[in-house]
Amino acid sequence: MGLGKPDDGLAATPPMGWNSWNRFGTKVDEALVRETAEAIVATGMREAGYRYVVIDDGWEAGERDAHGDLVADPAKFPHGIRAVADHVHALDLRFGIYTDAGTNTCQGLPASLGYEFRDARRFAEWGVDYVKVDWCHTNGLGPRALYAKWALAIAAAERPIVLSICEWGRSRPWEWAPSVGHLWRTCWDIQDTWASLTGVLDRQAGLYSYAGPSHWNDPDMLEIGNGGMTALEYRTHLGLWAMLAAPLMAGNDLRTMTDETRALLSAPEVLAIDQDPLGRQARRVRASDGAEVWVRDLAGGAQAVALANRDDCAREIAVEWTDLGLPAGTIRGVRDLWLREDVGHLRDGHAISVPPHDTALLRIAAPLG
Questions:
Q1: Lower Cβ count inside 10 Å, N or C end of the chain?
Q2: What is the pTM of this model?
Q3: Are residues 148 and 83 in the same domain?
Q4: Model confidence over 230-273: pLDDT tens digits?
């Protein structure tokens, strides 16, 4: 394979799945991973498109074995990682794992500096399909060179593995990572707050030209269902991540989530926007007084529009077809993606009252003829 990751087909659309970190931190173990994989199937999330089950930091023993290989914490993973991966694969899901490019992981466990080829080979032996490589404890090191080494190590392991680059956007990875990995973090870690969500969102506005099939900007994992935001704020979270063509990695406890959370995470027409095969990230075309309009080009000539209200009171927000680059007087079909209802064929544009911290999502049909 070598470098040139955009051509390998592993992430033709943004990866979807679950990651342990946001909800569980280092409290990850074999039972949690197995039960979460089973919950993805039982809740319908696998059918909705969620495929990867990813263990984040905290899975390792405190030191490598006598051969220099990473090993799982035997108390947390008594049957080893391969057995867990086999269970995940038996459910028609894919398995992901975490390491760090530096001398230690963010939680102080053994990391991969100098062991990239050994660790990639070990991950391949375990049946890993996705690896997240973090950037803690890397003083004096260069991310371009280290992540390129990771790409070579994964290629040498001869197993298709998605490479998730996590250096938090410090070295403008969108400018160099497309030839190295499949996705790269664009910002700091998200928190389960509205202030964090909007701060992360602002970091994405200028990056739309860098994303595309098999190379995605990653504004971090989802906080939906973890309790720190309102239902409408979580709806904004999913809706705008879908507009951004972001990887959708659920970060909640899938085993105990409410029906409301499950329905949001599985919203079919919203997920279809995220997974649109054209792979274009939305651009923010208007922002004033807390009201924002985001537009995303879709396959077949349609467009998705997000009308986001960051204000603390309801706002009427309008999109005009001229915002989409269309001439005045154009008639377009409009569909509400949350309600899954057609609004009608409208001339010139559409306006809608949006509750505080909510986001309306529309699909604007391709022009007739």
A1: C
A2: 0.97
A3: yes
A4: 999 999 999 999 999 999 999 999 999 999 999 999 999 999 99
